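README: folding subset

This subset contains proteins for which both the sequence and a predicted structure token string are available. Records are stored as plain text. Below is the entry for (African queen) hypothetical protein (327 residues), shown exactly as it appears on disk.
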Amino acid sequence: MSECRVHESILQSMKKVVCHYRDIIYVNDDKYEIADPITLYGDEVYKLNRSDGFKVSCSGVSKECYNIVGDGTPDALFPILSGMNDLQHPPAKRRYTNDVFLEIEPFIFHKAKINGFGPIRETFEGRIEERMAFMSIILPEKLKRNRKNALNYLKKNADVLTTPFDIHTTILDAMGLKQYASDYVARNSLMKRGLSLLEPISVLRTCADADILPYWCACMNSDWKDVPNNDTKFEEAGAALLSYVNRAIYDLRHLCAERELKLIRWVLINDKKDIETDKKIINYQAVIITKPGHGVFEGMMEYDIEKKLFEVKNDKDVSRISAYVTS
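--- output ---
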């Protein structure tokens, strides 16, 4: 009897590995059927009972979990440079009046990733790549001499959840200015939002501790389950996301055409309990393709069981993941 398992090298580099195996059952030489999926976790072994062929799809979360906290350059750089998100800064933006603008001087150069709106962004792999950006740190030799454990802690922290807020605190720590790091603590957390990578960070740290919205939390990806396209919530979730997009551009209707639903690519569901109210919270994620312009939108919504309504809780929970095209 044939056996299948996830390779040990994968298990060492990934956590929360989930695989769905489906036997390929041949009726005759020209016809075959795909059996119902059997779900296994981690190092569990799959045994082929009815055939010698199968289909398998697996997912997991990298143990090297540097997780971004939002969409676009501001959410990438503000936490690193200031230890705060964009909403915690003064409203020095052009849409506000009577603000004083900074003098334009070169300060830091950041290379955006190539083809950020490419087809891969619409896949699961692209979703993970966006949320878990590559981060490399080289410690100065003087710092390594003065702080014998710094490099060791840095290496160990490659396997725990870290964010741009931590990079800011780490930079201050490396400069001997850690006393100026932010003391901000996320709601219901017992640890600071920004921690130094040169000191131990708990492996039990969660996205809530790090102030990462569920939509952006890569560590939660294995907690989401597929919603079948014959489920009524599949269509409802897609329609709700489309409705939000159209409401968001309502005031710009003279510039932006009203979107129509072209396709619902996928819908996911996740349910959990609120630790404060002990109330069940159901979240949905969806990717929709709209027309005109083939706009692809991804978003997360909370489902109110009593009101039977989908609600986007935060503007940052919705992203356009396709390029803008002009005709």
